[in-house]
Amino acid sequence: MLEGQGIIDGLEFLPAEEKPYRVRVPAGIVHMDEDEASMFAFGAVVGSFGKLARQPA
């Protein structure tokens, strides 16, 4: 979903690494563990759709 929205450029999962999630963003590659990756994804979704959620129905 984040890649489809253009928020990230890609995601790799390398289970043998200490921080197995590699998220490609315009600034480069960010190495994350599971907790960091989940918080990043949550923050990106909130940031992307926050305005929509705050609009009156």
Annotate the secondary structure layout.
Blueprint: E1 10-13, E2 21-25, E3 28-32, H1 34-54
Antiparallel strand pairs: 1-2, 2-3
Q: What sort of overall outline do the alpha carbons produce when their principal axes are compared? A: elongated
Q: Beta-strand percentage?
A: 15-25%
Output the structural class: alpha+beta
Rg over alpha carbons = 13 Å
Mean of pLDDT = 86
Instruction: Give the distance, in angstroms, between the N- and C-terminal Cα atoms.
Output: 24 Å
How is the biggest beta sheet arranged?
A: 3 strands, antiparallel
The number of distinct β-strands equals 3
> Which spans of ≥5 residues are poorly predicted at pLDDT below 50?
none
Number of helices: 1
Strand order of the largest sheet: 1-2-3
**Topology order in helix (H) and strand (E) letters:** EEEH
**Helical fraction:** 25-40%
Short overview:
37% of the residues lie in helices and 25% in strands.
Provide an overview of this structure:
This protein is of the alpha+beta class. The protein is built from one helix and three strands, in the order E-E-E-H.
Key words describing this protein structure:
alpha+beta; three-stranded antiparallel beta sheet; 3 strands; 1 helix; elongated; 57 residues
